[in-house]
Amino acid sequence: MEAWIIYEQEDAEKNKAYIDWCITEADSLQVELKLVYVHQVCFGIKNHQLFIEWNHSNSLPDFVIMRTINDLLSRQFEFMGVPVYNAASVASVANDKAKTHQLLAQHNIPMVDTLFLNRSSLIEHEFHEFPFVIKEVAGRGGKQVHKIESNQEVKDIIPQLNGEQFIVQSLAKSGKDVRVFVIGKQIIAAILRESNQDFRANHSLGGTARPYLLNQLEKNTVDKIVELFPFGMVGIDFIFDEDNRPLFNEIEDVVGSRTLSKHTDINIVRLYLEFIVSNLK
């Protein structure tokens, strides 16, 4: 069996150890996993048919692990019969915070009050309750999240925003969240992330992390979300209200596993590849 793991080259260089880990685990499962850079893939329509080429070859893999956000490429593979993990249907929702909240709200998943605004609406909107946060809908890793204390701060932050679509949310309990790692329909583990220095608890932004045992309410909430998607592997993030009840925050499509690997003995890559191989049989 042959598979591709697809990255932007810059991201692949930062994640070499993870990629090597994936290739090693795949080899133990008799899967030849090849690293493919997005810029090396040529795809489109030729002679009225969809095509994909890599290194001037049109030979396609048995499956793809998509480690970049490229909905069009994911759909091209799927239309040509190649399974993609995560599926395009997952990526297209999970990588847009507005779409994710819109979908989950229909299924009564608890979350903070949220406004959907484009850039012009954000400029014109008069806010009355502070503080709140502005998030770019395609932001990742907490880096496109801004805490706002006044209408003047909104005006000041707008030139720094890259996107055109945003969500504006009331502030939950600061500096604490939980990431739940999910493969398929199964909860694998949860990691509590905390920060005393920032309202964001992201480990990459200096927060601490430790294993976390989900209570029954939290498990039930995750299970409700899991039933809505054909997940491969994702991280589902929750923040907390003042009574420590979970509030949905986001789904991480291209989820990293540094904190999980650092604080547990769980071989998440092995579990993921075993799930994929079993799913394809």
Q: How many beta-strand elements?
A: 15
| Low-pLDDT segments, ≥5 res | none
State the distance separating the first and last CA atoms.
Answer: 11 Å
Series of secondary-structure elements, N-terminal to C-terminal: EHHEEEEHEHHEHEEHEEEEHEEHH
The CATH topology of the largest domain corresponds to D-amino Acid Aminotransferase, Chain A, domain 1
Largest sheet: 5 strands, antiparallel
Overall CATH class of the largest domain: Alpha Beta
Strand portion: 25-35%
Mean pLDDT comes to 94
The gross shape turns out to be globular
Question: What's the number of structural domains?
Answer: 3
Q: What structural class do the secondary elements suggest?
A: alpha+beta
CATH architecture type of the largest domain: 2-Layer Sandwich
How would you describe the overall organization of this protein?
The chain has helices spanning 9-14, 16-28, 71-79, 88-94, 97-105, 119-124, 151-157, 216-226, 258-263, 268-280, and strands at 2-7, 32-37, 41-46, 49-54, 63-66, 84-85, 114-118, 132-136, 145-148, 165-170, 176-183, 186-194, 208-211, 233-240, 246-252. It has 281 residues and is α+β, with helices and mostly antiparallel strands. It has 3 domains: 2-89, Rossmann fold (3-Layer(aba) Sandwich), CATH 3.40.50.20; 103-108 and 173-273, 2-Layer Sandwich (D-amino Acid Aminotransferase, Chain A, domain 1); 114-170, Dna Ligase, domain 1 (2-Layer Sandwich). The strands form 4 sheets. Strands 13-12-11-14-15 form a 5-stranded antiparallel sheet. A 4-stranded parallel sheet has the order 2-1-5-6. It has a 4-stranded antiparallel sheet with strand order 7-10-8-9, sandwiched between helices. α3 (71-79) runs antiparallel to α4 (88-94). It is globular. The relative contact order is 0.14.
